[in-house]
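Exercise 7. Predict the structure of DUF5675 domain-containing protein from Parapedobacter indicus.
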Amino acid sequence: MEQIKIIRVAQGKNSTLSHLYIGSLFCCYLLEDSIRMEKIQGLTCIPEGEYRLRLNTWAGMNAKYTPKYPRLHRGMIEITGIPNYSLVFIHIGNYHTQTVGCPLTGSYWQRLDGDYQVLHSAAAYKYVYPLLVEEIERGNDRVVVEKGTQLASPPEL
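Solution. The predicted structure, encoded as tokens:
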């Protein structure tokens, strides 16, 4: 099975930019909150490690995505098994203030005022969502989160 990976590539003042891969295929950019040694609720990206992916059909966010994407949506893609985290979904958004600890999808990125943001989030979501659902249904439900070899430091203030 092809490994699903989130590779962290850059840090902003309050944001972390990552790449999402399925095997060797780059699928999209991801935006998360800052990397922190101690978790601050809603302001900290998920820690490095290996976790499980599943389709969550019962959380409140699911009710927002079902009518928005009726032909695509089969449940929120949830990252589970993260110590001290719950309801971590891969979803749409552009700014670190919209993550609340979840990875946001993006087609490309930019840096503004020392922080990263992802753009064309819905397009990236519509591309990567069926790929991840297919992997989950095949039993490939593990995701590895790791630091890239050249993780850029936060910009100077």
